[in-house]
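Quick one, T. Sequence first:
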Amino acid sequence: MSQTPSNLFLSIGKPVKDEYGRSVGRIISFATIPNGKFDSAFIELTDGRFTKQPIENLTFNGAEITLLSKIKSKAGVFCDQIPFIWRKDQALKDLNDKKKISSDLYQELHNNFGTILGQLRKDAQILLDETAQGITRCEEELSVLSYGILHLELEHEIGKINDDAYRSAFAVLQENLKRTTNEKNDLENTRNRLSNILTGDSPVVTMPIEKKISTYVAPVVNDTTELPEPPVVVYVKEVGKAGI
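Structure tokens:
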């Protein structure tokens, strides 16, 4: 189980990855509040830019530091808060129907709950749009990866790429295919949860469904072994993009 070290300054200089294993950057420093509690982390991104992330968006597991998905974290908050406020408003209505509170008090609290719910729903809709954009980005990346695998297989088949280079490139493409597919699945689950919250009569939190990804194991290549026919169609079909 991940635990936050007592002295996070020992993590300065250590690499940071996202939930899917991609390199994000490295820890440069931390910000603390007056009582000494760690508040946020300063991260140098792989492209040289800097970002400041709340400490709760990071997990520490030994030498591994993971930056959690901002979309998933925000969605979790909305999926907790919206049903909670909705249930409180329903309980308030029941109390009013049973004449256990005054009408004036009911109306005041009901209006307050309505304002809070309205703002939460508005913010959740913005996040839903961001989630849709993330899914589109993943689909575009999967399309690029599928073409990358296709052309790698073609060039290797006609002898333009030697076996060592083929194995190395294939492993990189396959790993990125898995990562991007996992991210797309997470975003789709998040979109479904948010949609249920925003469109349901009574918000119900649905648990994300795990999707297993079947991976193709690259064949062992040596001087006497001929590679089988490239399984190009498997990747193109999985991504949903056919043709060249």
